[in-house]
Amino acid sequence: MRKELNQGLIDYLKASPTPFHACASLARQLEAAGYQRLDEREAWSTYPRGRYYITRNDSSIIAVQLGRHSPLETGLRLVGAHTDSPCLRVKPQPELQRQGFWQLGVEVYGGALLAPWFDRDLSLAGRVTFRHGGKVESQLIDFKQPIAIIPNLAIHLNRSANEGWNINAQSELPPILAQIAGDERADFRALLAEQLRREHDINADVVLDFELCFYDTQPAALIGLNGDFIAGARLDNLLSCYAGLQALLSTGEEENCVLVCTDHEEVGSSSACGADGPFLDQVLHRLLPEGDDFVRIMQKSLLVSADNAHGVHPNYADRHDDNHGPKLNAGPVIKINSNQRYATNSETAGFFRHLCFDVEVPVQSFVTRSDMGCGSTIGPITSSQLGVRTVDIGLPTFAMHSIRELAGSQDLSHLVKVLTAFYSSPELP
């Protein structure tokens, strides 16, 4: 099982260079498992039982199983994650021509580690909006091949590079795409129109706009002498999206289960399709009873917010609290913060720990050092939106927000196992 899950994650990461592609990949797997797509723009009937999924902005997705038991009796089992990762996004008018090179202007999305972006084989993917036959349409594209690079400056010209380097995102990050001779002018929209023809056989009248991200073409892989690790881009947080999906698809039809994977977590979640927006609340209100019954259902429900945790790095162990340094391949981590950066409380933590004990999955705890700031995730946001009890958890990783992150190869199966037990649990606290 571990080998198949790890390979499935590697395949999913390759198919998901952007949140749009990550969402489309999840939708394909849900449809293959019998989930029915619901369109938010259409009227919905009352669905006493069944399996459904809903997308918004092509980058957020909610899958819902309404099981045999009434949600008024047993509540909902929710797992939440996010589809976005820090990256370099192309600006609206990106063409730069300097010293005979064609470059693209980019802005940094989220809290990216910038240094690892240099000297990587980069490709480009995302969503393009265009006019075709008099109508406005959108399509996902993925160049797949390495088409760009951000070369480092030689150490001879930057002697202090190894002493700490303040990277200027405006001037030092534009990737190089090609050399241009003479008076030739770069036309990025023409390049996108050609990609639409090549990839989708679409002859666009004009490219109107786009949301595109550069990404590293090096595929994720099992690495280490004994294959102990998974290295790859976007482990934060596509690893949790994939684990949640596998658990959902392994669950029987008795319980009421929800998987919600939303965009824009890395920039605060405040959007129509983010966790701090109305997406999940609106979907649940359309599928569940209203008024007093809805509140009762929420109070009988539980959310597992799954987002990666900081594993204790052997070269930087002092960055962790001595008693709370999660180790790779030692199981999922319960994340706790007294200032509510995580939504975990003793009851929800205790229940998750109980599930881990029951299915013989190792479990760890994380509290950030008291003299350091603490990040957050969708847990507190969703909890405050719905009033649902929440536990924040995640798998330990290294190099979070780098272009290539590292996780333990045993931990994915641990997480899928305990999330499957959660979805199948007949009773919540």
UniProtKB/TrEMBL annotation:
One Pfam family from the record: Peptidase_M18
Keyword list, A-Z: Aminopeptidase, Hydrolase, Metal-binding, Metalloprotease, Protease, Zinc
EC number: 3.4.11.-
Gene Ontology MF term list: aminopeptidase activity
EC primary class: hydrolase
Keyword Nucleus: no
Tree of life domain: Bacteria
Transmembrane segments: none
Cofactor(s) this protein requires: Zn(2+)
Chain residues that bind Zn(2+): H82, H156, H401
PANTHER family membership: ASPARTYL AMINOPEPTIDASE
Family: Belongs to the peptidase M18 family.
Name assigned to this protein: Probable M18 family aminopeptidase 2
Record organism: Azotobacter bryophylli
Gene from which this protein is expressed: apeB
